[in-house]
C-alpha cells in the first residue's frame, strides 16, 4: 500500500516529515534517528513497533510530537 493512500487523520498538529538515518535495536527498545533538515530527532520506541512498521534506513516517515510530552528549557 502506498503511504499517501493510507494516511490517517490525527489530532496532533506537531508533525514533521523526515528520513530515517538509523534504527538501532537492543532489548525491548529501538532508537530511531530521523533527519529533518537541517537537524535530526531521535525517538525511543518499542522494538515490537519498529519491527511492525518495518523501519529501515532511508524510509520516509512522519515524526509526531505529542504536546504533553515535550519540554523546553532555557539557560
Summarize the structure.
The protein has a four-stranded antiparallel β-sheet with strand order 3-2-1-4. It is 9% helix and 44% strand. It is mainly beta and 75 residues long.
Task: Report on the architecture of this protein.
This protein has one domain (3-66): RNA polymerase II/Efflux pump adaptor protein, barrel-sandwich hybrid domain (OB fold (Dihydrolipoamide Acetyltransferase, E2P)). The mean pLDDT is 86. It has one helix and four strands, in the order E-E-E-H-E. The radius of gyration is 13 Å and the shape is globular. The protein is 9% helix and 44% strand. It has a four-stranded antiparallel sheet with strand order 3-2-1-4. It has one helix at 47-53, and strands spanning 15-26, 29-36, 39-46, 60-64. With 75 residues, it is mainly beta.
* Reported CATH architecture: Beta Barrel
Per CATH, the class reads Mainly Beta
Q: What's the number of extended β-strand segments?
A: 4
Give the CATH topology.
OB fold (Dihydrolipoamide Acetyltransferase, E2P)
For the biggest β-sheet, the strand order reads 3-2-1-4
Please name the fourth-level CATH homologous superfamily. RNA polymerase II/Efflux pump adaptor protein, barrel-sandwich hybrid domain
Structural class: mainly beta
Mean pLDDT: 86
**Low-confidence parts:** none
Gross geometry: globular
Rg on CA atoms, Å: 13 Å
- Sheet-strand content, in percent, reads 35-45%
Q: Which percent range fits the helix content?
A: under 10%
Q: H/E element string?
A: EEEHE
Question: For the terminal residues, how far apart are their CA atoms?
Answer: 46 Å
Number of helices: 1
Sheet with the most strands? 4 strands, antiparallel
Tally of discrete structural domains: 1
